[in-house]
């Protein structure tokens, strides 16, 4: 069976990391390699990761922590982890997430069936409500099993190793924002295949990773500037076309009924 490596960049927000790692440990079937890249956290993150290393090892995982002495940003952290990974598929995961049971088996199955270069799950970004959120996610999956869209997602991206070898890793000039938008642009221009699937859902604490972090001044504007300089257009304009607005409106209606 194909193997999956998981790469998680972290920077403080240790409670989110704990929540994410608990769900990863409890709900994974195929993934057995985890690489956490610590971007110079100053809270309890190093001690918490050490404790989790013991627990993951007891369940047969290879779990490594790579520490940067200064915050290198999202793209650089991901790239460092990806270069160390051994899996046939590599999942890049934000730490402000909760993973559903069998998430990895489902995404791997869908990636292979679709001959996809990358697959990504749906996201529930409502406040996490203990037992109610997993129940709601399970109901969504029952309604949408087998459905797919050619749609980008960046909270959990499962890439085939061959796809990353072909398109390249994250452009390390981007610090936090637009590195995934840049990767999408490269995949689009290379006519690569990526999909969002309806039978895998993860919970996401929107922008929880950034929180109240000390980030570089105007980092979002700098990311946008780099993207426009590189590609010659403002990617935000994609979201303001008539078609994009209609799709968002229609998706909101479907979401009320638990439809993908």
How would you describe what is shown here?
This protein has helices at residues 14-27, 45-58, 74-84, 103-113, 132-144, 161-167, 179-189, 219-231, 242-256, and strands spanning 4-10, 33-38, 62-67, 89-93, 97-99, 118-124, 148-149, 156-160, 194-204. With 260 residues, the protein is α/β, with parallel strands linked by helices. It has one domain: Spore Coat Polysaccharide Biosynthesis Protein SpsA, Chain A (Alpha-Beta Complex), CATH 3.90.550. Strands 1, 2, 3, 4, 5, 6, 7, 8 and 9 form a nine-stranded mixed sheet that branches. It starts with a strand and ends with a helix. The model has no long low-confidence stretch (mean pLDDT 92).
Gist of the model:
With 260 residues, the chain is α/β, with parallel strands linked by helices.
What key attributes describe this structure?
9 helices, alpha/beta, nine-stranded mixed sheet, 20% strand, Spore Coat Polysaccharide Biosynthesis Protein SpsA, Chain A
In CATH terms, what is the architecture?
Answer: Alpha-Beta Complex
Which regions are unreliable across 5 or more consecutive residues at pLDDT < 50? Answer: none
Q: What is the helix content?
A: 40-55%
End-to-end separation: 29 Å
Order of helices and strands: EHEHEHEEHEHEEHHEHH
Topology:
Layout (H helix, E strand, L loop, with lengths): L3 E7 L3 H14 L5 E6 L6 H14 L3 E6 L6 H11 L4 E5 L3 E3 L3 H11 L4 E7 L7 H13 L3 E2 L6 E5 H7 L11 H11 L4 E11 L14 H13 L10 H15 L4
Parallel strand pairs: 1-2, 1-4, 2-3, 6-9
Antiparallel strand pairs: 4-8, 5-9, 6-8, 7-9
Helix pairs in contact: 1-2
């Amino acid at each position: 069976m194909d193997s999956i490596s998981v790469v998680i960049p972290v920077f403080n927000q240790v409670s989110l990391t704990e929540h994410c790692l608990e769900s990863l440990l409890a709900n994974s079937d195929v993934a057995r390699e985890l690489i956490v890249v610590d971007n110079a956290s100053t809270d309890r993150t190093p001690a918490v990761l050490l404790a989790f290393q013991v627990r993951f090892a007891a369940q047969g995982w290879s779990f490594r922590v790579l520490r940067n002495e200064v915050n290198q940003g999202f793209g650089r952290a991901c790239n460092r982890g990806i270069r160390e990974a051994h899996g046939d598929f590599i999942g890049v995961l934000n730490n402000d997430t909760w993973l559903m049971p069998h998430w990895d088996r489902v995404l791997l199955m869908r990636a292979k069936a679709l001959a996809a270069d990358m697959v990504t799950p749906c996201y529930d970004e409502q406040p996490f409500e203990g037992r109610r959120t997993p129940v709601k996610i399970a109901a969504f999956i029952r309604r949408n099993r087998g459905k797919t869209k050619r749609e980008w997602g960046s909270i959990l991206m499962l890439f085939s190793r061959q796809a990353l070898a072909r398109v390249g890793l994250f452009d390390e000039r981007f610090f936090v924002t637009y590195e995934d938008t840049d990767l999408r642009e490269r995949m689009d221009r290379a006519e690569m295949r990526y999909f969002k699937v309806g039978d895998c859902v993860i919970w996401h604490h929107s922008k929880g990773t950034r929180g109240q972090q000390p980030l570089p001044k105007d980092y979002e504007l700098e990311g946008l500037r780099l993207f426009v300089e590189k590609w010659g257009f403002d990617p935000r304009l994609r979201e303001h076309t008539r078609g994009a607005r209609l799709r968002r409106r229609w998706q909101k209606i479907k979401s009320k009924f638990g439809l993908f």
